[in-house]
Amino acid sequence: MQPGEAITISVKPFFSTAELNNQVPPGALVGILPVIRTQSGDYNPLGKLLRNNIVFAKGDYYRVLPGVELSFVIGSGSAVVGGYDFPIKPSRIRAGLRENTANQQVIINGNGACFLESPTYQKTSSEDLRALISTEPGESFLSDWTNYLEISSGGIEISFQSENKIREDYPDVIKGASANCNARTINIYLQRQSDNAIHKFGNINFLSQEIFSYIVNDWNNGVNATIPAVSSCSLFSPRKPIAREEIGDLASDSYRAAISYQYTGSQVTAISHASPPCIEEWYGDFTPASVEIGEVAIGYPAEVVNSGTSNNAIFDFRIPPGLIGASSDGGRFRGEYSEIQFYNEGDLVLYEGDLVALETNITPLVFTGLNPEGDGFKLIQFTTPIDTNFKISYIPSTYSKSCEVIVKLSDINPFNPDADIYSYSKYIGEYIQVSPIPQNTFIAIADAGNESLVLKIIGSVLYLIS
Prior knowledge:
The protein is mainly β. Helix content is 1%, strand content 41%. Among the domains are: 138-263, no CATH class; 290-319, no CATH class; 327-465, no CATH class. The strands form 9 sheets. Strands 27-28-29-36-37-31-34 form a 7-stranded mixed beta sheet, with no helix packed on it.
């Protein structure tokens, strides 16, 4: 109830004497005392779990739509506000909007009440803002033009019918919602083809939802005008009118017509449900969340994707492959490998593994440091030129530590003192960008421990995996 309103209550007893458990004798007077409660909503513990109040996914989401003149419609719905909710309420009409005023507040509470407040109103903890409504005057954007109509010393009849839904491009959740056009005045724009002159015939009254016709028979009854700028003033798109020749005094020429809505400040011209500041709409239900393991695939890079819904998480994994048919013992990999080259420096043996390619364009290589203690030293020679930039990524077997990676490029041998040396302290999964590698170039990699490495070439990326 609003301040100043009253309510009449009629109470009719409906029970049998047996239900009174013989505590009230026949013929006794029964008194009834109505009590007005300030809080009639039901306590909902969900309100204590949520960080904000919410509108439930019921009915029309309690959304606000324009009404006739200075009124608005609040659709059916339910919400939890201040820890209290209420049964779904039917659609209702509310009056009392102020003329020519922006951001008037539509307030709701946990009782299901809906009332209007000024733009400066400070809501209480038991209330929330459902929508902001504006009644500022202005002109809508222009409808589409009709085709040019050739007139021979006559007039033009302009016919159109207003929309019955909010325009599809309106920047709010009510876009496309069913609603009667609330404009009461239109402007007709007439353009003459011979000189492109435009005349505006303004402030023409019409009735919404009825087919409206207006005859322009005198060019001089209009005023010179330009096409109005695109405006966000109106919630409705003016439909393209229909033009046909009528009796009148227009000079012989070809004309086309378009219309716009004109608002005087006594109609709703803008509505916003944007959150914040308005209460949030909840589009799901409150089924307990679940977590499932979905697809697990081998590939690069490592990735976890949730392919489920907001209430049902399904995690799909992509995991980089390890060696197939290989095991580790004392720093040496065992498997079916063919020795292709041996370097004495650092007791290093270079193997090329006969591994199953897990992806297209992958060449697996294995590096093994034979010395049981001290720094491992890894070496590779490219016998063919590599024209693209390489990325070298070193991942140590101890996943919690960083490592020192030294990249040494030389076209003679890896121990040439004049070779370019790049030193980086890298963490797990980071990579080093190396310039294009010419033919017979050595790459020497040293890490902070005696660890075996697996090199994988994937396209132009060089992966070193412990």
